[in-house]
Amino acid sequence: MQKYVCNICGYVYDPADGDPDNDVKAGTKWEAVPSAWTCPICGASKENFSPE
């Protein structure tokens, strides 16, 4: 699955891991991550992420 990287801080969203601390289950594809989700490191919005 495609990983996405935060253009602000470099955090990598890996769909295999998800973001369970923020209610995004492991296996959640990027397209299915809620639009209100923000980077757990810097708080950037999804628009600030690019494919890795």
Note the main attributes of this structure.
single chain, 52 residues, mainly beta, three-stranded antiparallel sheet, 15% strand
Structural overview:
0% of the residues lie in helices and 15% in strands. The protein has 52 residues and is mainly β. Strands 2-1-3 form a 3-stranded antiparallel sheet, with no helix packed on it. A hairpin with a 5-residue loop joins β1 and β2.
Largest sheet: 3 strands, antiparallel
Dominant shape: globular
Give the number of helices: 0
Helix proportion of residues, in percent? Answer: under 10%
Structural class: mainly beta
Work out the number of β strands: 3
What fraction of the residues are assigned to beta strands by DSSP?
15-25%
Radius of gyration: 10 Å
How do the SSEs run, as a string of H and E?
EEE
* Distance between the ends: 11 Å
Instruction: List unreliable stretches of 5+ residues.
Output: none
If strands are numbered along the chain, what order do they take across the biggest sheet? 2-1-3
- Nearest-integer average pLDDT: 98
